[in-house]
Predict the structure.
Amino acid sequence: MSKITPLLVVLIAALTIALFLRGGEVLTALAISTTNSTVATANITNTPPTCTGVTCYDVDDDTANIKLSGGGTRQVKCNATCNDLNGWGNVKNYTGQFSSTTGSVCSASLVNCYPNTSCQNYSAINTTAQKVQCTYTVWYNAGNTSKYNDWFGNVTAGDIAGQQNGGNDTIDMAELLAIGVNNTLAFGSLAPDANESTCTHGTNAYNYGNVEIDVAVNGTALTCTSGSTAAAYIRGNLTSAGAYSLSYPLTATLGGPDTGSRFNTGIAASTTTTAPTAHTAKTIYWGLGVPSGVSGNCEGIMWFAAQLS
């Protein structure tokens, strides 16, 4: 027994050293992989506003396709939700643009650009968001989509720091065929069983739409105190003092001017930018023949129709 004991002591001591060294290696590895962290901070002083969900519509029929009014105006509204994370009190103004150009500010024009510098914030959603509405009065000669471009309704919010953002909605501008004429065509006093040699009585035909037009005309017989004069006795010409015998006789169609004597007037759509009453026009000149057996005052109706040129 006395010889075995020293050996055991030596072995135990060796094992102790080995475990200690192994433990040192593990601890050293853990120290290398240890990570630390820090806190990042920032102060966001201003967030630009945004406008989303822009929707534009024709007020009269509540659709996205604008149907203009002949010789007059149509009202278009564009709605949006505008948001400013700094609070909607941080917004300085709401502006808009209804135009056939996008991506840039355009100059006011009845044909293609309607700016609005005072859109209304008509309803608060919460402390950061508002419902905003821009209103536009659009004239009859606004460029139609078929010939020009789609229209874009824009709503933009600008804040007190000078930052702004907006959104758009795409709108179709329909073609408008519309015409205006003088209320009365007076031939004056004529002898029966005769006709005027030339067509000298002028009637202006106005283009009240946004496409180039020709004009079709027809009418009723002239009913007189005694007897009547058929519509064909009324003749028209685009040339002042054009020969009656070479001019176009009216077609008698009581249902309106869907068909009739067509005059290739080629009246272009108005391109006026600021004067809404500057309608484009051409004059049609008229002459009258009177059959025998007619006397007294005579009266009838003439219909004028706009047709695509």
